[in-house]
Specification:
Blueprint lengths: L1 E4 L8 E9 L16 H23 L3 H10 L2 H13 L4 H17 L4 H4 L2 H16 L13 E5 L4 H4 L7 E6 L7 H8 L4 E2 L14 E5 L4 E4 L3 H22 L15 E6 L2 H8 L5 E6 L1 H5 L7 H14 L4 E4 L27 H6 L1 H14 L5 E5 L5 H21 L8 E6 L2 H5 L1 H4 L5 E4 L1 H9 L17 H16 L3 E4 L10 H7 L3 E4 L4 H9 L1
Helix pairs in contact: 1-2, 1-3, 1-6, 3-4, 4-6, 12-14, 14-15
Amino acid sequence: MKEIHVAKTASRGIAVARVLKYQEPDFTPDGSSITQEQAALEKEKFAGAREAVKKALGVLAQENEIFAAHLEIVDDFTLQEGVESKIEGEHKNAQAALKETIEELKAIFDMMDDEYMRERAADIQDIGKRLMAELKGISLPDIGSLSSEAVIAARDLYPSDTVRINPEFVKGIITEEGGVTSHVSIIAKSMNIPTLVGVGPLLESLSGDELICMDAEKGIIVIDADEETLADYKVRKEDYEKERVRLQSLRNTPAVTKDGKKISLCANVGNLEDIEKALEMNIDGIGLFRSEFLYMENTHFPTEEEQFAVYSKAAALCPQELTIRTLDIGGDKELSYFEFEKEENPFLGWRAIRISLDMKDMFKQQLRAILRASVFGHVRIMFPMIISLEELKMAKDITEECKAELKAEGKAYDEDIELGMMIETPASVLLADEFAREADFFSIGTNDLTQYLLAIDRGNKKLADKYDYFHPAVLKAISHVIEAGHKEGIKVGMCGEMAGDSRATVKLLSMGLDEFSMSAGSVDYVREKIIE
């Protein structure tokens, strides 16, 4: 019997089943160099592969919005130009050109400090895998063809792999790579499949027939468990399923504490599909809409109309509350269509509100789109990375300019739209009293706040055990912010990972937190803590 412990978990649940090793085909390019005369033929091959993949994704996109985004990337001029320029200018064949282009695009996402954004690199890889399979004329493995129960063990899985999974047979997923915010984790979680990602080297030690027991919440994998351990996991699995059904039965119970305080239970999302899934949890609204996805998954700065189309649909889907965070991107989060200057320390660099205030025209396009969408529901605007009153006032003044323009154009908007800010830096904590007199609401971003307060890179694995939002300094900062907000009569929410950690719920309630915003999969657990 062998036991493996995993630091970060992607879901909850217990699985007991035989392992199935997922083996990817060999995607190594067949050759590399070509002559100039062969370039036209290689471009033609790539064009054919793109059309085939677009056709397949078009079918998938009708059922899952993730693949609508994939379809846009396949149709992206950046991808096409990258491949064709390597074919023509560097004399690479289509396969080698595709491999290099996908690696370059993936690197853009890999460099981001936001884990949710960084995991989008898997989407780029998924698209590259589909295109390469077409170019090489090979079939992709089909997990959906399983006919017996199994725990899937793989180097990594992609959305196109996961979407075909039948939960009746796939009882668990383990991957060597990946992160807890990857689309694979999100899809698996929506299917209630216990999932552990980023577990490190595992496949080589598996023959492919071992009995696996796994506890996704505690991050434990047991290979070839003895009879006593196996019996224990079977009982725990039954108990977990009963508990899950019980928690689901609480979804119609309002999030009201025993002393009668109504708590806003909200979700963090990145797109319209995320909202639809979150609404199934009977939430009170969207506490964080990550607008940067409109910029990251595009070939240009999205226009006002492009943004309005998304924001208005989002507001109509969740009219009770939609808090849109303005562009939160920086020197370490590169865009394929905009060149950022290289920075020695991008965590402390040109990012978020600093970019928006410097690029006023771009900022106004976003603000106008959000304002116009505000007539479809209770929309709120949230500014990220504010460290001074001057920045907050500038952002508010630009918003007022946009309002005046829209009024002159006869375009409707909510004249009383709330303008709030993220609390995610030591400066914003220390100035919380002053900020509370200028902002309509606060939302505490515990991910960055913990990083900056403790001077610990939250992506550094060597320091993972020291990155702790239960640290006394972090708790003291949170308490101070809530007190400062309430003193001026404004609501204080939280949209960092801590908000979805049910171990922290009671503590945050005792501090007076008004709104908890988290990934949809955590809502049931936090709701129970609020009402018990």
